[in-house]
Design brief:
Layout (H helix, E strand, L loop, with lengths): L4 H10 L4 H8 L3 H9 L8 H13 L2 E3 L9 E3 L14
Antiparallel strand pairs: 1-2
Helix pairs in contact: 2-3, 2-4
Amino acid sequence: MLVWARQIKAGRSLIGWEQFQLALKAGVGIATIRRLERMSGPINAHFETIAKIRRALESAGVEFIGEPKPGVCVRLDCVRSTTDGERGNQ
């Protein structure tokens, strides 16, 4: 699935991460996150860079859904605390 700049920014916002946090979790430079979030439409970057960012967001509970259309692109997987630390849907 294509990843759009708005999806990255929306996903980051859903989980309350700053740009530097996403950069750290994804293993990319903060300048890369800033540059990608300034784009409009599909992201023009190396496949592996996009994959790293997507994996970081998905590991935090962001789900990329449907076709990338502004406003209907990502959702947060509901997470509840359990005694054994497993993720679960509310």
